[in-house]
Design a protein that fits this description.
The structure holds 3 protein chains of 3 kinds. Helix content of chain A is 35%, strand content 12%. Chain A folds into 2 domains: 3-110, Ubiquitin-like (UB roll); 117-248, Alpha-helical ferredoxin (Fumarate Reductase Iron-sulfur Protein, Chain B, domain 2, Orthogonal Bundle). The longest helix of chain A is centred in the C-terminal third of the chain and has 19 residues, at 230-248. By secondary structure, chain A is of the alpha+beta class. By secondary structure, chain B is an alpha/beta fold. Chain B has 17 helices and 20 strands. Chain C has one domain: 3 helical TM bundles of succinate and fumarate reductases (Up-down Bundle). In chain C, helix 5 packs across helix 7. Classes of the chains: A alpha+beta, B alpha/beta, C mainly alpha. Chains A and B meet through helix 1, helix 2 and helix 3 of A and helix 3, helix 5, helix 6, helix 11 and helix 12 of B.
Chain lengths: 249, 649, 222
């Protein structure tokens, strides 16, 4: 295949960026999207040009590093991560636009690489269960009903890639934040910190400059792990519950 | 420089920390004997942890909980992305929840045997003991393990064992365990006990007066090279499988941290012990940048076969049952499809070498779920393996519910690593290595679902106990300053290395060299090794190295975000490590576990171990690039599990 | 780190949801009352007068109506203020657009902001037109039937009203479902029924309200 790529190039966080156009040839439909970009970069290096910077690591859809907006869609046309997108999803002669995640809470580092440390700070605000090493009771001491365990797992699948923020017209991190809250709040082990967790994480999310939710559902559509939109509803419920309880105290 | 293979044998290396006494009491004895650091004094000690995977993440969190000041590094943009995240299948623990005859002793036995009798009994027994606590710890942290309808934890079986002791979270066990450790780490970051440096890569170790006192690291965003000082340094930087270019490792996983430590005096043990995982998706072409694993758990229900006839290129569904060779079930009737990884991989290679491989280039075998779907129903198969099937379909564009998967072995894990004693200390005082970065527990072959167990055992339980002893016994260290000659030297060396890479301005990319060394290693130091091939590789590697420094091209500067520079710098270390791996493989003229020497096999093609000659761990001492290293042997003593020829028939 | 509801983006959404539901409840009653116009001027005017006497003799004349007006005013102000502040926040969170544009989200979602502004302006006009009569030439207090017929006898009265009611339909459709999510009453099993209620409410309100100008235009009401 022969393709025309229009790629966002930005030297660093302070520089202005713009789309640059590149042609790539000899692309196989078995290639992954990132392997197609590797091909471009090999050519750029040999030409003495600056290769396109992009985040990637495991290339099997689980680390959450890859983060490209392809033709306006976070992670491209398939419901998966960029690294699991294959060139068979495109046609010979296509023009493909590649941009970084865009949100003010995710400033661009270089080209297609953004800074997602805001997510880490949301987790630091309360996305954990306080269980210092050595304090744990026997694992079978507290059975967890299977539906609750499955619910927890479904939300724990989040890979923290940030596609939800990239897709949201408001740059909101509701889906990411709610996924972690729901994972931990449904478990009996997470119960003691249930209220502080949701209040603190939502507060941190606001402080990071993410937008609010208008329930467009774009986040859940873009999520490569299928975290449902209802996750946000449930977080709202947890938040209201915690607010009521905090008011009573 | 063929003189490289003319190595000398030095003093034997002795593990001075493992206590005597019955194997099941050794860990208790060691913990009691270890000196403690007064809680009030812990704040005054700084510990550097490099890496945030299962080992590093759990160690950082636990050390910080104990009150130490932890400074932690990862090259990823977030600690949550460390490659432990990609482990699929599960984690072993001797809980015996199934009442199927499991016990700590059996896990110990299985692991020593699975490692083909090349691991230390004391370490492995400790690992089996701790396995039980790991599950408790992870459940308390909210790791959503699979559960049964009664609300209790579910288990499944893995290769090389006959009990169900593997705990799992669908096909994402590594991810869930890593998130547990990451969350514990995050809690300590918020509490101010951990100073976290993401997107920062360790480029050298600082050794002052014979002790590890810090690291040189590069901020990958600004390119700034900085020094960080501490009372002890913990390397949890993972394995070195990426030396093969194509592997199941993450693209950025690399050997630089451990290799730089090796150059500074830490011995490197058993470098040739690499695990080739039997169930990976075959490569599709030269563009391939990495290989993707299909969890070993698939072998619970999938059946592996190839056509009986050579060159049978009918579609799999048109090959009748009696013309299929379910070769693992045929050769190993009692373990069948669940033989250990090294055996399954080699068997796949053998049938492909016979010309019975399937798919493009004949480099593949079928992993068939037709029978499982018939027996359990499509729904049950979907619930168990759905995400793996989806992943397979996305990569290959084939529906594994309809046609059998095609799989082929690929480099997956490295059992070798920095030599450590029972306390996980390397030969440099104050430098510790945990997780895949060390060589300790898996011998010559790792059993499935044991890497997660070892990483977490090291990080949550072993290191936080043993490092106290080091800190308590070492006299209070003087402050190290930037202008100490050893520090200035390490910084200068690092800066020179990067400057040199940028200055060559040749005509080959870092990736092209990486690919070349990888292909060489796969050919001569991969699934089967010969003396002749290893000699060839040892001849070729210095030539590649020489060519590298003549023709490498790295664009841009060192004072910016520069992924090519990061890559090129890692390739430098692969070009040295590869040489040591080949030498180790050459010197170990026996077959054991993942190391198969064609000269050493039984008449029916099984690996033939030579216990009288090679029952030791080979710890190599660095003497200079391209210079013959010095071999130090650590003799392995088996008091409880007596070496036998492994049999899974 | 506990904050007031007003300090949190989720809290402000709650304020929007509650105030929106209050207004929605009012609109349902309002719309049903409007339908009285089809029973002639006597019944309609009588109903309008009754609104002022609700709660008598316990409450003084028009007190109930004023209580309702105050509550509604508070709801409108709270709804609009939080909407304004949240929108500002959203726009700030996503300052640069993607170069590659593509159609996004449903029509109802995209029109929430514009729809809200249209409805806000409409409310002002509607009060000036039919409550105070400020912009209504020939307005006669105490003769609501005639005033309504007057308004819908002008082309612009019809246009303004019908456009606003279509906006109301879309706004209700997404708003009701959205409020349910904000208040955490949505769930996977309840999602269909909530969406159905939202659609039915939107449809009933729009058709109910628009039936009046249509009635006037077709001469059914005169």
């Amino acid at each position: 295949m022969k393709l025309t790529l229009r790629v966002w190039r930005q030297k660093n966080a302070d520089a202005d960026g713009a789309m640059s156009t590149y042609e790539v040839d000899g692309i196989s439909s078995d290639m992954s999207f990132l392997e197609m970009l590797d091909t471009l970069n090999e050519e750029l290096i040999l030409k003495g040009e600056d290769p396109v910077a992009f985040d990637h690591d495991c290339r099997e859809g689980i680390c959450g590093a890859c983060s490209l907006v392809i033709n306006g869609d976070a992670h491209g046309p398939e419901r998966t991560t960029t690294c699991q997108l294959h060139m068979r999803s495109f046609k010979d002669g296509d023009t493909i636009d590649i941009e970084p995640w865009r949100a003010s809470a995710f400033p661009v580092v270089k080209d297609l690489v953004v800074d997602r440390s805001a997510f880490d700070r949301i987790i630091q605000a309360g996305g954990y269960i306080t269980a210092p090493t050595g304090t744990a009771p026997e694992a079978h001491a507290t059975p967890v009903p299977k539906p609750d365990a499955d619910f927890a797992f479904e939300h724990a699948e989040c890979i923290g890639c940030g596609a939800c923020v990239a897709a949201c017209p408001n740059g909101a991190a509701m889906l990411f934040t709610s996924a972690k809250i729901n994972h931990l709040n449904v478990l009996p082990q997470g119960a003691p910190e249930r209220e502080s967790r949701v209040l603190d994480m939502v507060a941190q999310m606001d402080d990071e400059g993410f937008g609010g939710c208008t329930l467009t559902g774009e986040c859940a559509t873009a999520c490569p792990k299928g975290i449902p939109l209802m996750s946000i509803t449930n977080m709202n419920k947890e938040w209201l519950r915690a607010t009521r309880k905090a008011g009573k105290r | 420089m063929s003189s490289y293979s003319e190595y000398e044998t030095g003093e034997p290396v002795v593990d001075t920390k493992a206590p005597k006494g019955p194997v099941n009491e050794r860990w208790d004895i060691r913990r009691f004997e270890a000196k403690l650091v007064n809680p009030a004094n812990r704040r005054k000690h700084t510990i550097i942890v490099v890496g945030t995977g299962l080992a590093g993440g759990s160690a950082g969190a636990t050390l910080a909980e104990q009150g130490y000041h932890v400074v932690q590094f990862c090259f990823q943009d977030s600690p949550r992305r460390a490659h432990s995240v990609a482990a699929q299948g599960g984690i072993n623990a001797a809980k015996n929840y199934r009442n199927d005859g499991d016990s700590i002793h059996r896990l110990f036995y299985d692991t020593v045997k699975g490692g083909d009798f090349r691991a230390r009994e004391s370490n492995v027994h400790r690992l089996a003991q701790i396995s039980v606590e790991i599950i408790d710890q992870c459940v308390a942290q909210g790791v959503p393990f699979a559960r049964e309808y009664g609300g209790l934890l579910d288990n499944r079986s893995f290769g090389g064992v006959q009990v169900s002791r593997t705990f799992y979270a669908r096909g994402q066990t590594g991810q869930q365990l890593l998130l547990g450790a990451y969350q514990a780490l995050s809690r300590q970051v918020a509490a101010g006990n951990i100073e976290l440096h993401p997107r920062t890569e360790m480029l050298d170790l600082i050794v002052v007066d014979g002790r590890a006192r810090g690291i040189v690291a590069r901020d990958l965003v600004t390119g700034k090279i900085d020094t960080y000082f501490a009372d002890a340094v913990v390397l949890a930087s993972g394995g070195y499988g990426n030396v093969f270019y194509l592997s199941t490792n993450a693209m950025n996983s690399n050997a630089t941290a451990i290799w730089r430590a090796h150059r500074k005096g830490a011995y490197f043990a058993n470098p040739c012990f690499t695990q080739i995982h039997p169930t990976c998706i075959p490569r599709t072409g030269d563009h391939q940048s990495k290989l993707t694993l299909m969890s070993e758990s698939l072998r619970n229900d999938g059946r592996i076969w190839v056509p009986k006839a050579k060159g049978d290129d009918r579609p799999p569904n048109q090959i009748p049952e009696d013309e299929r060779d379910y070769y693992l079930e045929r050769i190993y009737p009692s373990f069948g499809n669940l033989v250990p990884r090294d055996i399954a991989s080699r068997a796949a290679k053998n049938v492909c070498d016979e010309g019975r491989g399937v798919g493009p280039g004949g480099q593949g075998v079928y992993l068939d779920f037709a029978e499982a779907i018939e027996r359990m129903g499509r729904k049950a198969v979907e619930a168990k393996y759905g995400n793996l099937f989806d992943m397979y379909q996305r990569i290959t564009d084939e529906d594994p519910y309809e046609v059998p998967m095609r799989i082929y072995p690929a480099v997956h894990y490295t059992m070798g690593g920095l030599w450590v004693d029972y306390d996980l200390g390397t030969t440099i005082p104050g430098l510790f290595a945990i997780g895949e970065a060390n060589f300790s527990d898996h011998g010559a072959n790792r059993l499935g679902a044991s890497a997660l167990m070892q990483g977490l055992a090291d990080g949550y339980f072993v290191l936080p106990s043993t490092i106290n002893d080091y800190l308590a016994r070492s006299p209070h260290h003087d402050e190290v300053s930037e202008d100490h000659p050893a520090v200035a030297e390490a910084v200068r060396e690092t800066q020179d290395r990067l400057a040199r890479l940028l200055a060559v301005d040749g005509d080959r990319t870092p990736d092209s060299f990486h690919r070349e060394i990888g292909e060489l290693m796969w050919e001569f130091c991969g699934m089967a090794r010969t003396e002749e091939g290893l000699h060839k590789a040892l001849e070729r590697i210095p030539e590649i190295r020489e060519e590298f420094w003549r023709r490498i091209k790295v664009p841009g500067t060192g004072e910016e975000f520069n992924q090519s520079l990061e890559k090129a710098n890692r390739v430098i270390d692969y070009l040295e490590l590869a040489e040591l791996m080949c030498l180790d493989a050459l010197h170990r003229a026996e077959s054991c576990g993942g190391h198969f020497r064609e000269e050493s096999q039984t008449p029916d093609g099984e690996a033939a171990r030579k216990d009288d000659e090679f029952s030791y761990a080979a710890a190599w001492e660095f003497t200079g690039t391209g210079e013959a290293p010095v071999l130090h042997k650590e003799d392995l003593v088996f008091e409880y599990v007596h070496p036998t020829q492994r049999s899974y028939a | 780190m506990t904050r007031t509801i007003w300090d949190s983006s989720v809290g402000k959404k709650t304020v929007m949801a509650v105030s929106g539901l209050i207004m929605l409840l009012y609109l349902v009653v309002h719309m049903l009352g409007n339908l009285k116009i089809f029973f002639g001027s006597g019944e309609f005017n009588h109903y309008a007068h009754w609104l002022r006497t609700i709660g008598e003799p316990f409450l003084h004349y028009e007190w109930a109506l004023w209580i309702i007006r105050v509550v509604l005013l508070a709801a409108v102000v709270a709804h609009a203020t939080s909407a304004y502040q949240l929108s500002r926040r959203d726009i700030k969170a996503r300052p640069s657009k993607y170069v590659h544009k593509r159609p996004r989200a449903s029509y109802a979602t995209r029109t929430m902001r514009w729809g809200g502004i249209i409805l806000g302006l409409f409310i002002v006009w509607h009060i000036l037109d039919l409550t105070t009569g400020t912009v209504h030439p020939g307005f006669e207090s105490g003769r609501p039937y005639q005033n309504v017929v007057d308004t819908f006898s002008t082309w612009y009265g019809n246009v303004i009203y019908i456009v606003a009611m279509l906006a109301l339909g879309l706004h209700t459709r997404h708003g009701f479902w959205s409020a349910a999510q904000t208040l955490g009453v949505g769930s996977r099993t309840r999602d269909r029924i909530l969406k159905t209620i939202a659609n039915v409410l939107a449809l009933v309100l729009t058709v109910g309200f628009i039936s009046v100008p249509v009635g006037v235009m077709t001469g059914l009401v005169s």
